[in-house]
Amino acid sequence: MIAETLIISLGVFVVAFLFAPLGMGGGMLFVPLLHYGLGWEINGALFAVSLSLTAVVSWGSGLAHRNEKHYDDLALKIGMKGAIPGALLGVGIVVLIGEKMDLVFKVLSLGMISWAIYKTAGKMKKDSENQQPSTAKSNDEIQPMSVQIGAGIAGVLSSVLAIGAGIIYVPVLRTFAHLEPRKAIGTSLHFMMIVVPVAIFAHLITLPSEMYSKLGEELLLILIFMALTFLGARNGAQYGIKYLSEHQLMKIFLLVIIVVGLKYVTDLGGF
Fold this sequence. Notes:
The protein has helices at about 1-20, 25-40, 45-65, 75-95, 100-130, 145-160, 165-175, 180-205, 210-215, 220-245, 245-270. With about 270 residues, the protein is mainly alpha-helical. The protein has one domain. Helix 2 (about 25-40) runs antiparallel to helix 3 (about 45-65). It is globular, with a radius of gyration of 17 Å.
């Protein structure tokens, strides 16, 4: 058990390091790590832990992006009107679904990943055909309703899937707010810095007492995971900002979500 815990701890650090530069929180892998690696059930308690780690990633990486001015305030303000209500709605959905959460989680994850792959690949192809570096367009070209709806869906999925939902925020910001890749990534992290704590709080107040007992038993381990997550996110964000171009970031983003998508396909297929 000690060896498994050490491996999972290393995995938590690596996930935070890899996802932080991409505008993602890592929840897509935190949940499988804790579920398959440590045998934790997929329920509200696991979601609260995954979201806590995701929050640490978003703050560790988000502050680094903020220092470099890689975010867009207007898109953030517009999208937040949908994201926060969406996160609260998502918690209600988790409570209603109850024991069927495992299957619903995997099906929704696969659908979300498929959409993100389609939108990201399409945007990259369009940028390549234009043979021009991607640049941010003026603020008056933002499509407010589309950004709000997209952010609202991301908020719901953040609570339902225990993720930061950067996999949705980034394509939405690229497509409907016309942000360059690095600004879309930074703005995605800023969404998570606010929305994820809201989702955590909402999950915690709906947990039954036995799940609080589980969290209490694992508190020290959770705190260790959070510390490793912060170190991984901070270093990953600084590395991405310094060494990775915007095109490289999008290629890595696409590769990561394809790999995760294949994992859920095989899982649902019983392989």
